Amino acid sequence: MLEAKQPAQDQTITPLSREPAEIVAESVNVNQSSVEDIQADLVRLVNSSATNISASEVDVRQSFVMQLDAEQVDFHESASGIVRGDTVSILGSTNGVVQSSHVVIESGSAIFVSSGSTEINNSQTGVVLSRIITGNSLRSVVLLSGKVEGNVETVLDTPRALLLGLASGVAIGMVILIGNLINRRKG
Question: 125-167, pLDDT tens digit by residue?
Fold first, then answer.
Protein backbone atom coordinates (compact mmCIF):
# COMPACT_ATOMS: atom_id res chain seq x y z
CA MET A 1 0.00 0.00 0.00
CA LEU A 2 1.31 3.44 -0.94
CA GLU A 3 1.65 6.12 1.69
CA ALA A 4 0.52 9.67 0.99
CA LYS A 5 3.46 12.03 0.97
CA GLN A 6 3.36 14.98 3.32
CA PRO A 7 4.54 18.17 1.61
CA ALA A 8 7.83 19.60 2.80
CA GLN A 9 8.03 23.33 3.50
CA ASP A 10 10.70 24.22 0.93
CA GLN A 11 12.95 22.12 -1.25
CA THR A 12 15.92 23.17 -3.38
CA ILE A 13 17.39 20.86 -6.02
CA THR A 14 20.92 21.60 -7.30
CA PRO A 15 23.44 19.52 -9.27
CA LEU A 16 25.05 18.43 -6.00
CA SER A 17 21.80 17.23 -4.43
CA ARG A 18 20.30 13.83 -5.12
CA GLU A 19 17.13 14.32 -7.20
CA PRO A 20 14.14 12.32 -5.99
CA ALA A 21 11.73 10.82 -8.54
CA GLU A 22 8.83 12.83 -7.10
CA ILE A 23 8.95 16.10 -5.20
CA VAL A 24 6.05 17.24 -3.03
CA ALA A 25 6.56 20.58 -1.25
CA GLU A 26 5.08 24.03 -0.74
CA SER A 27 7.96 25.65 -2.63
CA VAL A 28 10.46 24.00 -5.00
CA ASN A 29 13.56 25.58 -6.53
CA VAL A 30 15.34 23.52 -9.19
CA ASN A 31 18.71 24.80 -10.45
CA GLN A 32 20.78 23.01 -13.13
CA SER A 33 19.07 19.67 -12.50
CA SER A 34 16.58 17.27 -13.99
CA VAL A 35 13.51 16.02 -12.11
CA GLU A 36 10.56 13.79 -12.94
CA ASP A 37 7.45 14.97 -11.04
CA ILE A 38 6.88 18.10 -8.97
CA GLN A 39 3.79 18.98 -6.93
CA ALA A 40 3.98 22.31 -5.14
CA ASP A 41 2.38 25.70 -4.61
CA LEU A 42 5.41 27.53 -6.09
CA VAL A 43 7.96 26.07 -8.54
CA ARG A 44 11.04 27.82 -9.92
CA LEU A 45 13.10 26.08 -12.64
CA VAL A 46 16.42 27.58 -13.74
CA ASN A 47 18.62 25.82 -16.36
CA SER A 48 16.76 22.60 -15.61
CA SER A 49 14.23 20.12 -16.95
CA ALA A 50 11.11 18.51 -15.54
CA THR A 51 8.78 15.86 -16.89
CA ASN A 52 5.58 16.81 -15.04
CA ILE A 53 4.76 19.84 -12.89
CA SER A 54 1.52 20.49 -11.01
CA ALA A 55 1.49 23.78 -9.09
CA SER A 56 -0.27 27.05 -8.36
CA GLU A 57 2.55 29.25 -9.67
CA VAL A 58 5.47 28.27 -11.94
CA ASP A 59 8.46 30.34 -13.11
CA VAL A 60 10.56 28.64 -15.83
CA ARG A 61 13.87 30.20 -16.97
CA GLN A 62 16.11 28.65 -19.62
CA SER A 63 14.57 25.26 -18.89
CA PHE A 64 12.38 22.57 -20.44
CA VAL A 65 9.09 21.17 -19.11
CA MET A 66 7.30 18.26 -20.78
CA GLN A 67 3.87 18.76 -19.13
CA LEU A 68 2.75 21.56 -16.84
CA ASP A 69 -0.54 22.30 -15.03
CA ALA A 70 -0.68 25.54 -13.04
CA GLU A 71 -2.76 28.63 -12.35
CA GLN A 72 0.01 31.15 -13.19
CA VAL A 73 2.84 30.22 -15.59
CA ASP A 74 5.82 32.38 -16.67
CA PHE A 75 8.24 31.13 -19.36
CA HIS A 76 11.50 33.01 -20.02
CA GLU A 77 13.71 31.68 -22.84
CA SER A 78 12.43 28.15 -22.23
CA ALA A 79 10.57 25.35 -23.97
CA SER A 80 7.62 23.11 -23.14
CA GLY A 81 5.49 20.30 -24.52
CA ILE A 82 2.01 20.81 -23.02
CA VAL A 83 1.00 23.74 -20.80
CA ARG A 84 -2.37 24.19 -19.10
CA GLY A 85 -2.99 27.21 -16.90
CA ASP A 86 -5.26 30.10 -16.06
CA THR A 87 -2.69 32.71 -17.12
CA VAL A 88 0.33 31.81 -19.25
CA SER A 89 3.09 34.29 -20.12
CA ILE A 90 5.67 33.28 -22.74
CA LEU A 91 8.73 35.49 -23.31
CA GLY A 92 11.26 34.35 -25.91
CA SER A 93 10.17 30.75 -25.49
CA THR A 94 9.05 27.86 -27.68
CA ASN A 95 5.96 25.91 -26.69
CA GLY A 96 4.05 22.98 -28.16
CA VAL A 97 0.47 23.11 -26.88
CA VAL A 98 -0.81 25.96 -24.69
CA GLN A 99 -4.31 25.88 -23.20
CA SER A 100 -5.29 28.79 -20.98
CA SER A 101 -7.87 31.43 -20.11
CA HIS A 102 -5.35 34.16 -21.00
CA VAL A 103 -2.09 33.78 -22.95
CA VAL A 104 0.61 36.39 -23.59
CA ILE A 105 3.35 35.53 -26.13
CA GLU A 106 6.24 37.99 -26.62
CA SER A 107 8.98 37.15 -29.15
CA GLY A 108 8.18 33.46 -28.88
CA SER A 109 6.48 30.65 -30.70
CA ALA A 110 3.79 28.05 -30.11
CA ILE A 111 2.47 25.22 -32.25
CA PHE A 112 -1.10 25.26 -30.88
CA VAL A 113 -2.79 27.86 -28.65
CA SER A 114 -6.32 27.59 -27.26
CA SER A 115 -7.47 30.40 -24.99
CA GLY A 116 -10.20 32.84 -24.10
CA SER A 117 -8.00 35.86 -24.81
CA THR A 118 -4.58 35.98 -26.42
CA GLU A 119 -1.97 38.74 -26.71
CA ILE A 120 0.75 37.98 -29.25
CA ASN A 121 3.61 40.31 -30.21
CA ASN A 122 6.55 39.58 -32.55
CA SER A 123 5.77 35.87 -32.48
CA GLN A 124 4.93 32.89 -34.65
CA THR A 125 2.21 30.32 -34.11
CA GLY A 126 0.84 27.31 -35.92
CA VAL A 127 -2.82 27.23 -34.87
CA VAL A 128 -4.52 29.80 -32.61
CA LEU A 129 -8.08 29.33 -31.33
CA SER A 130 -9.17 32.27 -29.18
CA ARG A 131 -12.23 34.46 -28.63
CA ILE A 132 -10.12 37.63 -28.66
CA ILE A 133 -6.65 38.10 -30.17
CA THR A 134 -4.63 41.30 -29.88
CA GLY A 135 -1.07 41.99 -30.92
CA ASN A 136 1.46 43.10 -33.48
CA SER A 137 3.70 41.18 -35.86
CA LEU A 138 1.83 37.92 -35.37
CA ARG A 139 2.48 35.25 -37.99
CA SER A 140 0.14 32.26 -37.88
CA VAL A 141 -0.76 29.38 -40.16
CA VAL A 142 -4.35 29.03 -38.90
CA LEU A 143 -6.13 31.71 -36.87
CA LEU A 144 -9.71 31.20 -35.66
CA SER A 145 -11.08 34.02 -33.54
CA GLY A 146 -14.19 36.06 -32.95
CA LYS A 147 -12.25 39.33 -32.72
CA VAL A 148 -8.74 40.21 -33.93
CA GLU A 149 -6.98 43.52 -33.21
CA GLY A 150 -3.52 44.32 -34.57
CA ASN A 151 -1.12 43.43 -37.36
CA VAL A 152 -1.67 39.75 -38.15
CA GLU A 153 -0.39 37.62 -41.05
CA THR A 154 -2.22 34.32 -41.53
CA VAL A 155 -2.33 31.58 -44.09
CA LEU A 156 -5.83 30.52 -43.02
CA ASP A 157 -8.13 32.84 -41.03
CA THR A 158 -11.77 32.28 -39.98
CA PRO A 159 -13.47 33.23 -43.31
CA ARG A 160 -10.91 31.24 -45.32
CA ALA A 161 -11.32 28.24 -42.99
CA LEU A 162 -15.09 28.31 -43.58
CA LEU A 163 -14.56 28.57 -47.33
CA LEU A 164 -12.01 25.73 -47.27
CA GLY A 165 -14.44 23.56 -45.28
CA LEU A 166 -17.25 24.27 -47.72
CA ALA A 167 -15.06 23.59 -50.76
CA SER A 168 -13.72 20.37 -49.20
CA GLY A 169 -17.26 19.20 -48.45
CA VAL A 170 -18.38 19.86 -52.03
CA ALA A 171 -15.28 18.12 -53.46
CA ILE A 172 -15.73 15.03 -51.24
CA GLY A 173 -19.43 14.93 -52.13
CA MET A 174 -18.62 15.04 -55.86
CA VAL A 175 -16.08 12.20 -55.53
CA ILE A 176 -18.62 10.04 -53.68
CA LEU A 177 -21.34 10.86 -56.24
CA ILE A 178 -19.09 9.99 -59.19
CA GLY A 179 -17.96 6.80 -57.44
CA ASN A 180 -21.60 5.74 -56.91
CA LEU A 181 -22.47 6.46 -60.56
CA ILE A 182 -19.52 4.36 -61.78
CA ASN A 183 -20.47 1.48 -59.46
CA ARG A 184 -24.09 1.53 -60.72
CA ARG A 185 -22.97 1.26 -64.37
CA LYS A 186 -20.71 -1.70 -63.55
CA GLY A 187 -23.41 -3.53 -61.62
Answer: 999 999 999 999 888 888 888 898 988 887 766 677 778 788 8
Residue 136 falls within a domain, yes or no? yes
Same domain? For 120 and 184 the reply is: no
Q: Are residues 101 and 44 in the same domain?
A: yes
Q: How many C-beta neighbours within 10 Å does residue 148 have?
A: 20
Amino acid at 187: G
62 residue type, one letter: Q
Count of the separate structural domains present in the chain: 2
Task: Give the CA distances from residue 154 to residues 29, 76, 125, 139, in Å, rounded to whole numbers and listed in that order.
Answer: 39, 26, 10, 6
For residues 56 and 70, give the distance between their C-alpha atoms in angstroms, rounded to a whole number. Answer: 5
